[in-house]
Amino acid sequence: MTRLPEPVSHGAGARDAGVHVSRRRLLGASTSAAVVAAAAGLAAGATGGAGPGQASPSAGPDAPIDFHGEHQAGIVTPAQDHLHFVALDVVTTDRAELAALLRTWTRAAERMTAGAEAAAGGLVGGGPHRPPEDTGEAYGLPASGLTITIGFGPLLFDDRFGLASRKPAALEELPPFAGDQLDSRRCGGDLCIQACANDPQVAVHAVRNLVRLGVGVVAVRWSQLGFGRTSSTSTSHTTPRNLFGFKDGTSNLQAEDPEALTRHVWVGRGDEAASGSWMVGGSYLVARRIRMHLEVWDRTSLQEQQEVIGRDKKEGAPLGRIREHDPPDFAAKGPDGDPVVPARSHVRLAHASRLGGIRLLRRGYTFTDGTDGVGHLDAGLFFLAFMRHPGRQFVPMQRALAGADLLNEYVEHTGSAVFACPPGTAPGRWWGEELFA
Amino acid sequence: MTRLPEPVSHGAGARDAGVHVSRRRLLGASTSAAVVAAAAGLAAGATGGAGPGQASPSAGPDAPIDFHGEHQAGIVTPAQDHLHFVALDVVTTDRAELAALLRTWTRAAERMTAGAEAAAGGLVGGGPHRPPEDTGEAYGLPASGLTITIGFGPLLFDDRFGLASRKPAALEELPPFAGDQLDSRRCGGDLCIQACANDPQVAVHAVRNLVRLGVGVVAVRWSQLGFGRTSSTSTSHTTPRNLFGFKDGTSNLQAEDPEALTRHVWVGRGDEAASGSWMVGGSYLVARRIRMHLEVWDRTSLQEQQEVIGRDKKEGAPLGRIREHDPPDFAAKGPDGDPVVPARSHVRLAHASRLGGIRLLRRGYTFTDGTDGVGHLDAGLFFLAFMRHPGRQFVPMQRALAGADLLNEYVEHTGSAVFACPPGTAPGRWWGEELFA
Asked: Which positions ≥6 away from B84 have C-beta within 8 Å?
């Protein structure tokens, strides 16, 4: 009935584009300073030889991030502005169907992270009588730093898919912690997909299209959106503030410290007994949805807030010190003989020196999910952290915090999950290929 | 107990800053191209003499937008990337308390839109023994294009505050429409605050601090976050796509067309009978939360999608035409004798030419509120539109759509509200001052 308009050439149309052509090329000329700067950043990124999972330091927020590499992108990748995280259950019992989906997903992720559509047919290439192969809301948008990271939950290794013998000993369900207020509708999942991008529409598009490709094989269990530092307003030298108004992440692991990453984040050859050979180069992801009771916090005095956190609010320095990155002095005592950094402060309890050197790579996002029905913001931190062994890193740390942290009066853990994120892939390979071999 | 660290000078600290000093000054030197460009944009904006409610065309996404003017900012202001919208109920019956809050809010909005903290004490200036006057999560962030827009709901004009005689005849509750699936927890409100910014944390911070200033006077009824075009990826020449993958807003009113705004958006002197003198220079806001059933849509053929919308998916041209901005030809018929633009297509039913010239200024945002419990995204369009008279503009348009639009199979209106947004303010004046006079 309808006559479709003739195709109009854009130069390089996204549906014809190989995976290395960015959707950005579809954009016309612009006089916006920000866009020009971003395009300049993109060009720098394209020629600058960014490492796996990392944009070149000069790349703008629109630039693509290499999907392939020893490790998956989205782990040590500098945190993008926006997160869409989804946990899925496998609804088929056919191992081959699941493996085929992982292959399909890998191809789609390669395309989308490069700025192309989810499948070759794209927006309109499938013709008028079929649903479009890509849902289209990111058509015309650049790669926007998109990374897509996959993980496998403990229950994937039950008896459904013949994977029980490959289950990493390190991939145990997390134990209950004191004070947990977990909502089962925000917990667990056979699989997870973490999509991060500097444009929320690009992250949402990625998850939506992967979920769509999985219809009949997987179903969404829960999902979470988040936002973080924004690329337009942050520098690599500024620690962002959380919803309690404190700098958060000061002593986080740095992507620029490969020795620390090897020690705390990446599963190595020596971990095969706990993780299996297929996890070498991978990492474990712990996700916790932490509701923050902002209205209660906002009625708390500055001094109490600072004693709860163990840092001063303005600078972010450990109490008794001057600058944010000064190491805390846990031995220092005030005139009253009490420790300057209170015994149950968050900084003291979570500090590596108090936990036998335990560290994590934190990569969480702030969330605000509207209002909770009694007039309070349903907001907080969607805690995401990568590590070599959850039982030796997250679990002891959280036990120490759950039992004593002064912060517990103001936060509540409402969701929880753990996933094994396999290593990165090379062109032509696929996510979890070694697991299913 | 705790010894606070000595203050460290940042140059111009935010807590000492007047309202015209941006939080951006707190940021240190940066080598990021995007940040440098944004700072250049800010400088251009600061010296370029932007009009009320508008950034200078050369201003970057960090720049402040003038709070004062004939009209409130946030109406014809080019849409920022992020929205935090909140509807509130007044919980006091004391008219003076309500008026005092509106004064307090106006001062706080002046400060925050200029990039300063919500109150002069700010993050730490109130001393250790009081809760900080600003919640702090936007400390160090630039103004980020923040606009804050206030509106008054119909029930504010009941017998509580002696405002019944000032109620605009044009401010009627919206009638029920065919197909409405309204959730009362997402409807109505005595007041609304629309905060828009290019950084979600800045928008969330603004709403949170205004709500906090209103404790005991107002309580949150419902809230909605949204995202839209991103300043880093869009140009003023590109129409963004909605979650159905179609360009959305092609024939929207343009802020550059003052005659059209006078005719369709701003309450004028001639409207005093319907709106009262205190609304001259103001506008009415209709908010509708429109859930979009993405999974159903994604199973629909390209042809059917295009017939539902009445435009082609790739270009956004009206069916039978070539380019996005070509006017639709509603008389054209295909070889089968049917109209090329189907009779019940969205474009045809919503077109001004079919509605006696009715137009609205649409300023909606996409939302994704996680998952609905049965594996589907709870996502869609938070429709916001400004107009001179809802009963003569939104109501007849929505009646035409609700009865016939093919799109109704794929969308569901789950929230609804209408507000009277008063005119802008001058320095020293306050929101609604004429209403309470």
From this structure: A368, B195, B200, B203, B204, B206, B207, B223, B224, B225
